[in-house]
Write a structure and sequence with these properties.
globular, 37% helix, binds guanosine-5'-diphosphate-rhamnose, alpha/beta, binds NADPH dihydro-nicotinamide-adenine-dinucleotide phosphate, 10 helices
Length: 371
């Protein structure tokens, strides 16, 4: 019998990779997608199946994390063996703009899933994965951060995720449910949302190299993140639900890198070396070498400035995870290094931006939001 999984947030970065992974492993996959005025299924279009054909194993259902009746009905119909609750308003900076909605979706959304399973009497059948986050550590109390490090959330997003973390633990203890938190550190990929810093950088560097844009703007260049590849991390989500016991797990590479160095490494992928000058809000980056004849950038050209608009009211300065428990107990390992990740993201964005170049050369405009 094929196992049945229900993924909320299936249209997001992790939902797309997790769907691929579960389908390859023989699962029947159901996903929750939001109604939107434009198509929002770009990342999973390659998995789409015509609902009129037999033997379908990939299904999408309309729904929303703020709608309990919808979630209860879907879980009742699907009778999932595993639920992966990945849906969230996942942008930390945006959560300061829409804190109530963030709480409703990210905190109460997790409760709605847990309580639907309980209400439907599926406690012994359905295992639940909750997408918890390294943002819980926020104002860092300990380096590196592990399952025993105290939390100190620093944004409405992280506070909402802290509720989701504890309600998952509480339902596990109160109702003996197989409900687990994966405390995942940042993970990226070529399909990462365009407004997260890594993808913002690889898109901008590609456009600058191709001559489509002169420069770009970032916020805090000093922040340090433990960046892994999303493909490695979704495999771990599945492993967490296959463990003997329901527990909470830190997933991280154990290495941390400054935003500034991510910028340097991305430019280095196209043979461009940079020098950073100034400090804080006045920092800028200039080209010092251009070693690839394909990309002709003037030496001394300014390609990056800090714009304080991207600073956050409260920032998380440094994250670096200790995934010893997952490595020892579940045998998890990262297959991708940061260099591999940046290489893959740059390769993909250079291709995408080359398409934009053709369009622009043909007289069509292509939008590039500075978000
Ligand atoms: P994305 O932002 O790429 O995807 C978020 C998904 O949630 C999208 O499918 C989005 O739908 C959906 N969603 C948002 N709001 C709602 C709602 N109200 N109802 C239903 N669906 C909704 O996130 P990632 O894939 O990067 O992350 C997956 C999860 O893991 C998130 O919960 C995130 O907070 C968490 N996380 C992510 C980490 C990372 O580094 N990527 C690290 C740690 C945790 P739509 O496509 O329509 O917008
Ligand atoms: P993060 O990711 O907040 O860690 O949350 P993001 O890529 O948004 O920021 C990382 C760091 O880069 C700094 N930064 C900028 N960030 C953005 N987005 N845009 C900028 O221009 C910019 N300049 C500097 C930020 O200040 C920050 O320090 C991600 C999300 O996926 C969450 O859902 C997840 O829980 C955590 O990772 C783990």
């Amino acid at each position: 019998m094929n196992k049945v999984a229900f993924i909320t947030g299936i249209t997001g970065q992790d939902g797309a990779y997790l769907s691929e992974f579960l389908l390859k492993n023989g699962y029947i996959v159901h996903g929750l997608k939001r109604r939107s005025s434009l198509f929002n299924t770009d990342r999973i279009d390659h998995l789409y199946q015509d609902p009129h054909v037999d033997h379908q194993n990939f299904y999408l259902h309309y729904g929303d994390m703020t709608d309990s009746t919808n979630l209860i009905r879907l879980i009742k119909e699907i009778q999932p063996d595993e639920i992966y609750n990945l849906a969230a308003m996942s942008h930390v900076a945006v959560s300061f703009e829409i804190p109530e909605y963030t709480g409703n979706t990210d905190a109460l959304g997790a409760l709605r899933i847990l309580d639907a399973v309980r209400l439907l009497g599926l406690e012994k059948k359905t295992k639940i994965y909750q997408a918890s986050t390294s943002e819980l550590y926020g104002k860092v109390q300990e380096v590196p951060q592990s399952e025993t490090t105290p939390f100190y959330p620093r944004s409405p997003y992280a506070v909402a995720k802290m509720y989701a973390f504890w309600i998952t633990v509480n339902y596990r203890e109160a109702y003996d449910m197989f409900a687990c938190n994966g405390i995942l550190f940042n993970h990226e990929s070529p399909i990462r949302g365009e407004t997260f810093v890594t993808r913002k950088i690889t898109r901008a560097v590609s456009r600058i190299a191709l001559g489509l844009q002169d420069k770009f703007y970032l916020g805090n260049l000093e922040a340090q993140r433990d960046w892994g590849h999303a493909k490695d991390y979704v495999r771990m989500m599945w492993m967490i639900l296959q463990a003997d016991k329901a527990e909470d797990w830190v997933i991280a590479t154990g290495k941390t890198t400054r935003v500034r160095d991510f910028v340097k490494m991305s430019f280095a992928e196209v043979g461009i070396e940079l020098e950073f000058k100034g400090k804080g809000a006045d920092e800028k980056a200039f080209v010092t070498e251009c070693n690839n004849p394909k990309y002709q950038l003037e030496i001394g050209k300014e390609v990056l400035s800090v714009d304080p608009r991207y600073f956050r009211p409260t920032e998380v300065d440094q994250l670096v995870g200790d995934a010893t428990k997952a490595k020892q107990k579940l045998g998890w390992e990262c297959k991708y290094s940061l260099k591999d990740l940046i290489h893959e993201m740059m390769e993909s964005d250079l291709k995408l931006m080359t398409k934009q170049q053709y369009l622009e050369d043909g007289g069509y405009s292509t939008l590039n939001y500075f978000e």
